[in-house]
Amino acid sequence: MEEGIAALYDQRGIEGVRPRFAYPLIRLAHTGPLTIKELAESLELTHSAVSQTVSALRAQGLVDTAPGPDARTRVVGLTESGRELVPFLEAEWRATEAAAAELDAALPVSLVEFTDALREHLADRPFLDRILDHLPDADHVPDKDHRPDTDHLHDTVHLPDTDHP
């Protein structure tokens, strides 16, 4: 889904903007300048994630930062370029929600239900633990030069032809 949004940006000639930029830019347009902490709380994201996004937004000239009320805070505000982009991002957001709802209606289980169930199961037992359960010897990692030949696994297990992401 994110790839589709990025393709739309490319199609419309919007360079350097990633889908994850939309929500913070729209929020800042509606609230005015916020500290990174306030922005993170309003988006229900971690301070670290928002700080990284703000750095990327600054690099694209979409926001400016200024010292906050104390030496540890930074206030984030839209630049003119950021403000000019917001009407398109709001339209894209509404269109994305409509497209997701259409897709959701076509699926046998809703995306929200699926995502909630997946989160619940992963909270009960993390994915790492599930992977480790399927490794023959979870404590032993062979040297690169001494890893077993796995070509035969292509016959029984569907392994991608490319390197693991």
Q: What would your notes on this structure say?
A:
The chain is mostly helical. It has 2 domains: 2-106, Arc Repressor Mutant, subunit A (Orthogonal Bundle); 107-137, no CATH class. Helices cover 55% and strands 7% of the residues. It contains 7 helices and 3 strands; from the N terminus they run H-H-E-H-H-E-E-H-H-H. It has helices at 2-11, 22-31, 36-43, 47-59, 80-106, 111-124, 127-134; strands at 34-35, 63-67, 74-78. A 3-stranded antiparallel sheet has the order 1-3-2. The two termini are 18 Å apart.
Keywords:
mainly alpha; 3 strands; single chain; disordered C terminus; Arc Repressor Mutant, subunit A; 7 helices; 7% strand; 165 residues; three-stranded antiparallel β-sheet
**Which structural class best describes the helix and strand composition?**
mainly alpha
CATH architecture heading of the largest domain? Orthogonal Bundle
- Indicate the mean pLDDT: 86
Distance linking N and C termini: 18 Å
CATH class type of the largest domain: Mainly Alpha
Radius of gyration, in angstroms, nearest whole number: 22 Å
Strand content: 5-15%
Largest sheet: 3 strands, antiparallel
Percent range of helical residues: 40-55%
Strand order of the largest sheet: 1-3-2
Q: How would you spell out the order of helices and strands?
A: HHEHHEEHHH
Number of domains: 2
Remind me, CATH topology of the largest domain?
Answer: Arc Repressor Mutant, subunit A
Got a strand count?
3
- Could you give me the name of the CATH homologous superfamily of the largest domain? Winged helix-like DNA-binding domain superfamily/Winged helix DNA-binding domain
Helix count from the secondary structure assignment: 7
Shape: globular
The residue ranges in which pLDDT falls below 50 over 5 or more consecutive positions are 152-165
